[in-house]
């Protein structure tokens, strides 16, 4: 197998692990090939998420996190659930929402929308309830509609995301957020 290293220059001119202090998530294509890694910061700080840099094998604007596991559910349900981060995808899948995917630290791109369109007809956007999440949701709606897809924005409880909602209220609350309280776009 291949080993991918992620090092960057540190403040002293040496090299350091780019993902130090982060929960690591392998990033896989829809065909299940591992092409990069993502890291979620443990604790507070910025940036919250970092990914491997673009390579000939990996372009973050063309890969959706969790697509390798979600594609069958998406095809069956004819629906995808779009969330913001890796842990949100994991939380949704743990709660039984098997069609959840996330863009990788970037706003949804046209290539993402085309990839989703190959597998489903509708996208439920389940972004964070904060202002930034709602602004990103509105932009995602525009991109998805340009590809001819139906969209809905799910309303998360104030201050929640799928990961925190699963931990505080359980799987049913995550499923409820996806299935009810949807606002048409």
Concise overview:
It contains 6 helices and 10 strands, in the order βββββαβαβαβαβααβ. It has 185 residues and is α/β, with parallel strands linked by helices.
What do these coordinates show?
The chain is α/β, with parallel strands linked by helices and 185 residues long. The protein has helices at residues 67-77, 86-94, 110-119, 131-146, 162-169, 171-179, and strands spanning 7-9, 15-17, 22-28, 34-41, 49-51, 79-83, 100-102, 122-125, 150-154, 182-184. The strands form 3 sheets. It has a 5-stranded mixed sheet with strand order 7-6-8-9-10, sandwiched between helices. The protein has a 3-stranded antiparallel sheet with strand order 3-4-5, with no helix packed on it. Strands 1-2 form a two-stranded antiparallel ribbon. Helix 2 (86-94) packs across helix 5 (162-169) and helix 5 packs across helix 6 (171-179). The chain is globular, with a radius of gyration of 16 Å. The relative contact order is 0.13. Mean pLDDT is 86; it is low at 1-5.
């Amino acid at each position: 197998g291949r080993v991918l290293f992620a090092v960057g220059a540190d403040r002293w001119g040496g090299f350091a692990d780019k993902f130090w202090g982060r929960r690591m998530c392998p990033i896989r294509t829809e065909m299940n090939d591992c092409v990069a890694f993502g890291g979620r910061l443990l604790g507070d700080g910025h940036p919250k998420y970092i990914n491997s840099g673009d390579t000939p094998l990996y372009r973050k604007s063309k890969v959706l996190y969790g697509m390798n596991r979600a594609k069958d559910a998406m095809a069956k349900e004819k629906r995808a659930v779009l969330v913001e981060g890796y842990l949100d995808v994991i939380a949704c899948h743990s709660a039984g929402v098997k069609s959840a995917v996330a863009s990788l630290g970037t706003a949804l791109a046209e290539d993402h929308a085309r990839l989703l369109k190959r597998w489903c007809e509708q996208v439920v956007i389940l972004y964070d309830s904060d202002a930034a999440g709602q602004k990103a949701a509105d932009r995602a709606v525009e991109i998805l509609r340009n590809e001819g897809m139906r969209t809905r924005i799910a309303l998360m409880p104030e201050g929640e995301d799928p990961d925190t909602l699963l931990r505080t209220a359980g799987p049913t609350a995550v499923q409820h957020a996806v299935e009810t309280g949807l606002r048409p776009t």
